[in-house]
């Protein structure tokens, strides 16, 4: 029996009696039946307490491969908060990884490398961009969500305040099936949102980068990068991958990461997914920038959206104090994020019409903007 046959017959149920039943229940609740190749080849060694160096492509299941043994060991030790720190997870650069490995690894460590052609993208993934004038972004998103009402969609914003504003408008006033998650929510709320989105067959999750880190989410049909990705260093290693129901990798980012966000749509065999980044016409040079990183995006065309939803938002902002406050906070947060963007030649606030940008948040008149934001 060769390795592939062994792997094909592997299942998490084989760990019964070897790891805590609560861990297996958690794995089962995430609808994980069979381990991925990196998990199948590393878990036996890690559960026996051996040092392991594992390498495989983004979205292959590495996080679960090391977290399951970590939690199992802590449970065996009856580790509690009173004991202090039980595990440290680092995300160092490549050079630091090599230095840490030399310092920490025992001489008899195991090395596992899954060479799956090391392709960062999946054949079933369609990734592209769409040009949209900034004042038309709300109608564009409304149309996108309406067309995808039977799909699972994740939409990424540049700030927590922007998530809150768009969630309130689309959930309460557009009656869209929207959930939201970001770093300023309580852990309890984030967990509840995550579990709810996990269960649904279709729906929308508005989020910031917090949703990219280690969340296991079933297949996502569309990833929408609504605001310009803002952290080229953090995301410089990943391509738009779309998940296939085991793990939603990181998120749209640029360099090689702009597309990690798509680590949720087509990740896996025979799966299809889509990813789109929304750009102003003045930002189209971003496509040439990522092309130099060997990331190629198709240009998507969408039908002109109706202005009705924009008119509704503008009326709400004019008459509703709650939505107006949320809109103003989101608008200012958007400007701060845009102003500090690392790719200033492309995402340049001096080329941004502030009045038209205000319309994207429902303002007929531009709110006061502190000069410190623009200077």
Structure characterization notes:
With 375 residues, this protein is α/β, with parallel strands linked by helices. It has 13 helices and nine strands. The strands form two sheets. A seven-stranded parallel β-sheet has the order 5-6-4-7-8-3-9. Strand 5, helix 8 (187-199) and strand 6 (203-207) form a beta-alpha-beta unit. Helix 7 (160-173) runs antiparallel to helix 11 and helix 10 (308-319) packs across helix 11. The protein is elongated and about 65 Å long. The protein starts with a helix and ends with a helix. The model is unreliable at 117-122, 232-261 and 266-270 (pLDDT under 50).
Layout of secondary structure:
Blueprint: H1 3-8, H2 21-29, H3 37-47, E1 52-55, H4 62-76, H5 94-104, E2 110-113, E3 125-131, H6 137-147, E4 152-156, H7 160-173, E5 178-181, H8 187-199, E6 203-207, E7 222-225, E8 273-279, H9 285-291, E9 298-299, H10 308-319, H11 321-339, H12 354-359, H13 371-374
Parallel strand pairs: 1-2, 3-8, 3-9, 4-6, 4-7, 5-6, 7-8
Keywords, separated by commas or semicolons:
seven-stranded parallel sheet; alpha/beta; two-stranded parallel sheet; single chain; 13 helices
Could you provide a short overview of the structure?
With 375 residues, this protein is an alpha/beta fold.
């Amino acid at each position: 029996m060769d390795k592939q046959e062994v792997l094909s017959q592997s299942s998490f149920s084989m760990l019964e009696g070897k790891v805590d039943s609560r861990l297996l229940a958690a794995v089962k609740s995430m609808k994980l039946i069979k381990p991925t190749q990196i998990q199948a080849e590393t878990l036996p060694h890690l559960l026996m307490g051996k040092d392991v160096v594992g390498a495989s492509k983004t979205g292959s299941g590495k996080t679960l491969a090391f977290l399951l043994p970590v939690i199992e060991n802590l449970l065996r030790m009856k580790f509690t908060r009173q004991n202090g720190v039980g595990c440290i997870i680092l995300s160092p650069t490549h050079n630091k990884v090599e230095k840490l490995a030399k310092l920490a690894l025992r001489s008899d460590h195991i090395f596992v490398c899954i060479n799956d052609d090391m392709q960062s993208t999946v054949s079933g993934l369609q990734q592209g961009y769409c040009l949209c004038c900034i004042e038309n972004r709300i109608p564009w998103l409304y149309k996108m969500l309406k067309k995808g009402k039977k799909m699972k969609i994740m939409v990424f914003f540049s700030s927590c305040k922007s998530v809150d504003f768009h969630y309130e408008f689309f959930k309460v006033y557009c009656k869209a099936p929207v959930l939201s998650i970001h770093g300023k929510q309580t852990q309890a709320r984030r967990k509840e949102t995550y579990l709810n989105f996990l269960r649904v067959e279709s729906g929308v999750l508005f989020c910031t980068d917090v949703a990219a880190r280690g969340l296991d989410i079933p297949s996502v049909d569309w990833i929408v990068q609504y605001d310009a990705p803002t952290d080229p260093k953090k995301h410089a290693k990943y391509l738009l991958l779309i998940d296939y129901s085991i793990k939603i990798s990181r998120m749209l980012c640029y360099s090689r990461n702009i597309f990690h966000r798509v680590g949720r749509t087509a990740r896996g065999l025979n799966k299809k997914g889509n990813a789109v980044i929304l750009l102003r016409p003045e930002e189209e040079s971003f496509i040439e920038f990522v092309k130099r990183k060997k990331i190629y995006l198709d240009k998507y065309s969408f039908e002109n959206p109706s202005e009705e939803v924009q008119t509704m938002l503008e009326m709400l902002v004019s008459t509703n104090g709650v939505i107006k406050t949320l809109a103003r906070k989101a608008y200012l947060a958007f400007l701060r994020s845009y102003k500090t963007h690392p790719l200033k030649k492309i995402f340049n606030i001096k080329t941004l019409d502030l009045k038209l940008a205000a319309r994207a948040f429902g303002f007929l008149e531009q709110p006061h903007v502190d000069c410190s934001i623009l200077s």
